[in-house]
Amino acid sequence: DSGVTQTPKHLITATGQRVTLRCSPRSGDLSVYWYQQSLDQGLQFLIQYYNGEERAKGNILERFSAQQFPDLHSELNLSSLELGDSALYFCASSGAPRGNTIYFGEGSWLTVV
Amino acid sequence: ELKVEQNPLFLSMQEGKNYTIYCNYSTTSDRLYWYRQDPGKSLESLFVLLSNGAVKQEGRLMASLDTKARLSTLHITAAVHDLSATYFCAVLIYKLSFGAGTTVTVRA
Q: Is A43 on the interface with B (CB under 8 A)?
């Protein structure tokens, strides 16, 4: 158990819908990262927050948004869902902006039908 | 744009033999990570390499980092079935960029 908690674990939704994925980082970790893993794209970095502020942005679609709240949990919002958004979404956390160890949660499986 | 390349992408190992996975990256970085992933599961942190010449070992796995060559290796000694998984290297600059992964299968 990495200490990073993600909910829900599995989610099936229809195209055009909106979903919210939630992440609680390890106790004391200020940095939260979001990744998308799919068979064709591999592991893609979406966005990073540090202590509530956006720190780095990757290949995150405009239909996707995220935030980190004062209690340090984070949410990833995915809207106008398309079939291609079906993937495993990981949240990770670390204690500092640049590492050291970055711990990954169990992931949220999103299936868009 | 940072590129992280792993090879091989697929590795069929025979139990008891030694193998190496290579990770090359295109931009200078002093932080390299190795992760293991079982099918459909999370990424388990194996090693964090923080400086040139760093070497870390855990059980049958040993990782090293050469920042000048922009190369990290993951060496597997006397492979056993439990090591079957996908292994990823990742390089941290402003974001953690992953290689494509090496899928390892250990056969008797």
A: yes
The pLDDT tens digits of the residues spanning B15-36 come to: 999 999 999 999 988 789 999 9
Q: A45 and B43: CB-CB below 8 Å?
A: no
Grade residue B83 by pLDDT with cuts at 50, 70 and 90. Answer: very high
Residue A79 corresponds to which tokens in the numbers above?
């809207």
Cα separation, A51 vs A53, in Å, equals 6
In which residue are the tokens 């008797």 written?
B108
Q: Checking phi first, is residue B5 left (phi over 0); if not, alpha (psi -120 to 50) or beta?
A: beta
Tokens describing residue B81: 């079935």
* Burial zone of B82 (CB within 10 Å; 0-12 exposed, 13-18 middle, 19+ buried): exposed
* Partner residue opposite B101 with nearest CB, options A42, A92, A99: A42
Question: What is the per-residue DSSP string for B24-85?
Answer: EESS--S-EEEEEE-TTS-EEEEEEE-STT-EEEETTEEEEEETTTTEEEEEE-S--GGG-E
Residue of A nearest to B86 (CA): A42
CA B44/CA A100 separation, integer angstroms: 14
Question: What sign does the dihedral A48-B58-B30-B69 (CA atoms) show?
Answer: negative
Amino acid making up residue A34: W
The two tokens of residue B53 are 């010449």
